[in-house]
Write a structure and sequence with these properties.
Helicase, Ruva Protein, domain 3, 245 residues, single chain, five-stranded mixed beta barrel, alpha+beta
């Protein structure tokens, strides 16, 4: 088994990364959150597991050994293969998975595309005594942490690629349908383009103008600030938030 790889990231895609180790480029399948932490041209170290099938060898990579361990345990549940296990970790972090199984939270498990209610019940039954209790405090509901950096620029996903297309492809890799991905990306783009208005500045008790106000003759207060196109990680976070509602 290949337990880890360390090398330079030479390419990033919506579902995978290429890490060059000793002159050999290894294709590593990763969740969007793991891909978000990688940069082309920079060193990376991933915990990995090699899945052997009759016709292929597939290397799966994770930002931390804990994710790899949960990935491997998930596959011991009936009906859960590596792709579905990766989809689970694409939606939930390891402790959220542990908590969902320990508390028999079927709703959390069925948020993963490809897992229905019966599948969630089977996972709870098979893994109740294998995953163990959560190792940290309860996570705040919302998109997975770790996607604070970009998943990759449009150019890193091939010629003619766009941020929206890359995010749709990543969602498809997690098991969402093309229609679900398209709708989620569209709604996330709309939300990001129209953020909630900022609170007005507090009045100064001395009677002076609030700090930051533009003096007379200056720029108009409250003028709109142009919103640039979101990067892939921001759009992915927003799309996952839409899908989890």
């Amino acid at each position: 088994m290949i337990a880890s790889v360390s090398g330079t990231v030479t390419a990033l895609g919506p579902l995978s990364a290429v890490v060059e180790v000793g002159g050999v480029g290894l294709l590593v399948q990763c969740t969007p959150a793991t891909l978000a932490s990688l940069r082309v041209g920079e060193p990376a170290s991933l915990a990995t597991t090699l899945v052997v099938r009759e016709t292929e060898l597939t290397l799966y990579g994770f930002a931390a050994p804990d994710e790899r361990d949960v990935f491997e345990v998930l596959q011991s549940a009936a009906g859960v293969g590596p792709k579905l296990a990766q989809a689970v970790l694409g939606v939930h972090d390891p402790d959220t998975v542990r908590r969902a199984v320990a508390e028999e939270d079927l709703n959390a498990l069925t948020r993963v595309p490809g897992i229905g209610r019966k599948g969630a019940q089977r996972i709870v039954l098979d893994l109740r005594d294998r995953l163990g209790p959560p190792r940290g405090p309860a996570a705040v509901p919302g998109p997975r942490a770790g996607a604070q950096a970009r998943v990759g620029s449009p150019g890193e996903h091939g010629p003619g690629g766009t941020v929206a297309a890359s995010v749709r492809e990543a969602l498809g890799g997690l098991g969402y349908s093309a229609r679900e991905a398209e709708d989620a990306v569209a709604r996330a783009l709309a939300a990001l383009a129209d953020p909630p208005p900022a609170d007005p500045p507090l009045a100064d008790p001395t009677g002076d103008a609030p700090a930051g106000d533009t003096p007379a003759g200056g720029a108009v207060s409250g003028a709109a600030i142009p919103v640039s196109e979101p990067d892939a990680a921001t759009l992915l976070r927003g799309s996952l938030a839409v899908l989890r509602r």
